[in-house]
Amino acid sequence: MMNFNLRKSLRFIAVFILVISYKTSLHSFEKIIPLSNLNAPERMVIDSERIYVEDRKSIKLFNKSDFVFIKTIGREGQGPGEFQDFAIPQILPDKILVSTANKISYFSFDGELIEERKNTQSDYGIKAVNQNYIGFDWVFIEDYVAYILYDSDLKPIKELHRGKAIIHPNRRRDFFEIHFYDVQRDKIVIAQREGFEIDIFDSEGKLLHSIKHKVKAIPFSKNDKDDVVNYWREERGYEQWQIDSLLKRTDFPEFFPPIQTCRLADGKIYVITYKKIDDKNECLIFDMSGEFIKDAYFPLKMMAPNHACPFAIYENTLYQLIFNYDFETWELHINQID
User: Fold this and answer.
1) Backbone φ and ψ of 46, nearest 5°
2) CA–CA dist 82, 107 (Å, integer)
3) At a CB cut-off of 8 Å and minimum separation 6, what does 174 contact?
4) Mean pLDDT score of the chain
5) Does 98 reside within a domain?
6) 43 partner at 20 to 30 Å CA-CA among 3, 131, 180, 332?
């Protein structure tokens, strides 16, 4: 009788024998690549040579050409090059910025620490734009989230947008929220927190364009709510009393929001909605002047109705990290965007 460790090893070898597997359909061509050294990835960013993955208060660096793990950048802690909370990476022209609780850190592309600066103004998620920064501030007492432009010393310049917070003072919470802001080519893009409206600013906070687009309302069904409960139980490991508490104070909507999230890449704005055809999510593509280019569809894997598996877009290609439970490993799924 083959023992468990041997079976597991053989399964692992089988994955790497098929290091790249292809799935073909009428409109798609998928590449699947096992990645090592990942525990609980949350986000990733990609350039022409490297893939940076946020993974449990560190950044995992992979070679983009052969997907080989290179090194771990940072670790949990409060010292130089260490992170206390989410470690959110941003690729700059000459280095990497990592924003975490109370500070921003700059690293070389190879992961060597260059410098660090304290951040006492904004929550995690600061992004550089020219000499300024964009970040956000949660003000739960007054029930709003503000997106704020900061100067080179991280002092507030102006508020770019304010919207309702997902968690309210009476401890009730909305299930969905639109929460997206990012930087591309010296422009700031913010999805407003309600409706389908996306604002494009220059690096000084001047509003250049606004995108408004009509999308079909997608009903939020009982099956969707059941998927949420299953996610809480199976993926988050919540006990029944915790699930019951969440159900009592969570406001589930009648319809999905018009925007799920966005990505900036290749001089374009990719807006992902909840509309699906043949298990593929709709993606509305705009240029940086707000002009609509086209709609596309790709297979975006969701952990829950409000939580996509980590993904990035680069050169009109979707990269997504999905956990393979059979082989107990994270896989990078690569799909061309139609």
Assistant:
1) -135, 140
2) 12
3) 164, 166, 167, 168, 250, 251, 253
4) 89
5) no
6) 131
